[in-house]
Amino acid sequence: MDEKTEQLRDIFMDVSEDGAVTESQAAGRGSLTDVDESAIDDRLADVVARMRERYAFRTDLDDAALVTVVRAFYEGQDDAAIADDLAVDAETVETARFDLHLLRESDDGDADFDIAAFRRRTVAGATTAELAAEFDLDEAAATDYRRVVEAQAAARRVSHRFQSEFEDVLTDAGLSTRMTAAVRENGLEEATEDIDSLDSDADISM
């Protein structure tokens, strides 16, 4: 073997050894055993704390419990399952979700009335009693749908920023997140409807 061939062999061996290490490191990246769970919780808790400073949360759940809600939501658990884990009722979990801007497509998916019109009337300031009368709902149902619309509006006002931050934390940790693109697309559609509604009102008043 001549000197040049030997040098090439040495270079190849060095690269191969480095590649083996890199491959081993890559294989472990994102695995649950290598994830610093406490660091993930701390980052999620930071987002929750900033939301708490900005909004009036309506449940007695502390930040640790709300982090559990965030994690379970993105794992695909329903409100009843999350409630069991936290030893609270499902309505408390739903309220916590709304406070955290965590919305499901199913939150208003079973509406058998014009939800877009309901949304516009809510944005315009209609009372729960007025909404119930106009859309032939009992006040309990009108209250439930109003809560959904208000949560959607709150998330939309900040362009789903906090939801994106939750997802970034979980994605950075190598954990899969439940896709919520459809919910955001609905949010954009709602924003357009609200703008159109406001424009129409402006034209009428001119």
Please state the average pLDDT score. Answer: 78
Structural class: mainly alpha
Strand content: under 5%
Number of helices: 10
Largest sheet: none
Spans where pLDDT lies below 50 across 5 or more residues: 15-33, 178-183, 191-206
* Secondary structure tally: strands: 0
Portion of residues in helices? over 70%
CA(first)-CA(last) distance: 92 Å
Written as H for each helix and E for each strand, in order along the chain, the element string is HHHHHHHHHH
Q: What Rg do the Cα atoms give?
A: 25 Å
Which shape, going by the Cα principal axes?
Answer: elongated
What does the model show?
There is one protein chain. This protein is mainly α. 71% of the residues lie in helices and 0% in strands.
Topology:
Blueprint: H1 3-28, H2 37-54, H3 63-74, H4 79-86, H5 90-99, H6 115-123, H7 128-134, H8 139-157, H9 161-172, H10 181-205
Helix pairs in contact: 2-3, 2-9, 4-5, 6-8, 6-10, 7-8, 8-10
Could you name the key traits of this structure?
disordered C terminus; mainly alpha; elongated; 71% helix; 206 residues
